[in-house]
Specification:
450 residues; mainly alpha; Growth Hormone, Chain: A; 77% helix; globular; disordered N terminus
């Protein structure tokens, strides 16, 4: 973030609330100890999460199918998994953003890691003893939804305080690489380990959560934004939502992702494709889940060394069109190589959009509102992912999995056409630089604090 928006620590004159060793903007983000610890923590956290989520979906679908449910009926169970993760995320979003702005973001993340570690241990125990049931899996899905509700805004709001603004886009790309590495290895790890012993993915996830906890615990103290004492908590929540509503670039970017991914959410139906359409089993399931992350990781790696600088808005819109088109082709595919290729393109296009959107949101949001704006962003991401899983599973229940995926991909393309007219600012956004009026307002706030 710009130095105008940052609260400067009492023992440092460096911008953006970062420690003194990060003040040199020429440094690589991974050369900054706090960011390195953050990067390792986020990567292992994502690795454990996606390993668990894949196996939870696989177990749910197989339990339902083995109980005699049809493909459509078992798809409905996958829809419920998505819904149960989304409900706590949706209900808690207005409050977790405020928590991220008022309390130590590191401690919030550590608390959520402990909760997810507990979930992994419980699932390892019941799976080892053969006591896994759909109600148990549903209960864990709710707990994971609560943990992710609190960790998302805290993680998003913490990262920009660890590096100078000048290298923030590079740091965002590297953070995305850590996330995508987790998405690449996690599903494959879960799928392959499940083939050896069904409980092994959960034991591995528990170990990864321990590594993650250690990494986040090593992050040094970073300043929190000043808390407005003249405004009650509910007023601060409304203030954050009002900011998102009035900033059309931020609002348009967030909602574009909401509707595009919500409609084109094919990931929830991977167990259906792995077992009944492509017939590739649990190992193939891991490959399907890994393919989008491979494409995304390659894209993020390119951005980490060659950050995007021009025509960022139009390129974001174009990437969503590619995302929708590849989704349509995947929906029709009965060939494993073609399916993997389309999923890799889906991941690359999604990463392209995510990189631009997150950079714009972080750079266009004052530090004292980052937690709340990140919470709103997380709510839309959760609506597009978890509730999108529910939507895709429901469509598969009603019309079949192929129709659900193809219709969703077409919906994403239509969304781009509609959003281009509703939010012309997206077409007009050429660079990541925030508008001058925001910088001037931030400078006035800084002068008032001084």
């Amino acid at each position: 973030m710009p130095c105008h928006w940052a609260r400067v620590s009492e023992d440092s004159n460096t911008p953006n609330g970062v420690s003194a060793d990060t003040s040199a903007s020429h440094k690589h983000p991974l050369a900054i100890p706090n960011f390195l610890a953050y990067w390792v923590g986020r990567m292992t956290l994502t690795l454990a999460q996606y390993s668990m989520l894949l196996v939870i979906g696989w177990q749910t679908y197989n339990i339902a199918r083995d109980a005699g449910l049809s493909v459509a009926g078992a798809s409905g169970q996958l829809a419920l998994i998505g819904l149960l993760q989304f409900i706590p995320l949706f209900a808690l979003t207005p409050f977790v953003g405020l928590v991220a702005d008022r309390y130590d973001r590191r401690k919030i993340v550590l608390g959520t890691v402990v909760l997810q570690l507990t979930c992994a241990v419980v699932l390892a125990w019941v799976t080892y003893h053969g006591d896994t049931t759909i109600p148990v899996l549903f209960s864990i899905a709710v707990a994971l939804g609560v943990a992710r509700a609190f960790s998302g805004p805290a993680l998003s709001a913490l990262a920009p305080n660890l590096v100078p603004r000048e290298i923030l886009p590079n740091a965002i790309a590297l953070s995305s690489i850590g996330w995508q590495v987790g998405m690449i290895v996690g599903p494959a790890l879960g799928g392959y380990l499940y083939g050896f012993y069904p409980w092994l993915p959960y034991v591995t996830a528990a170990i990864l959560y321990c590594v993650c906890f250690t990494a986040f615990a090593l992050i040094g103290k970073v300043p929190q934004p000043a808390v407005r004492k003249d405004q009650r908590p509910i007023g601060q929540i409304v203030d954050g939502m009002r900011y998102v509503w009035h900033n059309k670039m931020v609002f348009g970017s967030i909602t574009l992702d909401l509707f595009a991914v919500f409609l084109a959410g094919a990931t929830a139906l991977f167990p259906v494709y792995a077992r009944d359409i492509l017939q590739v089993g649990s190992a193939g399931l891991g490959q399907l889940a890994m393919a989008p992350a491979v494409g995304a990781a390659v894209t993020a790696a390119v951005f980490s060394v060659r950050p995007l600088k021009s025509n960022v808005g139009p390129k974001m819109l174009g990437s969503v069109v590619v995302f929708g088109t590849a989704t349509v082709i995947f929906g029709f595919s009965t060939s494993m190589p073609l399916s993997l290729a389309m999923l890799a393109i889906i991941g690359a296009a999604d990463m392209f959009s995510v990189y631009i959107r997150q950079s714009l949101i972080q750079l266009h949001t004052p530090d004292d509102k980052r937690g709340r704006v990140s919470a709103v962003s997380q709510m839309t991401i959760s609506a597009s992912n978890e509730f999108g899983d529910f939507f895709s599973g429901s469509l598969a229940f009603l019309f079949g999995p192929v129709a659900a995926v193809v219709t969703g991909g077409m919906g994403a393309i239509i969304t781009v056409a509609v959003w281009s007219r509703m939010f012309p600012v997206l077409w007009a956004t050429k660079t990541f630089d925030p508008p001058e009026q925001l910088l001037e307002e931030a400078q006035r706030n800084k002068n008032q604090e001084a």
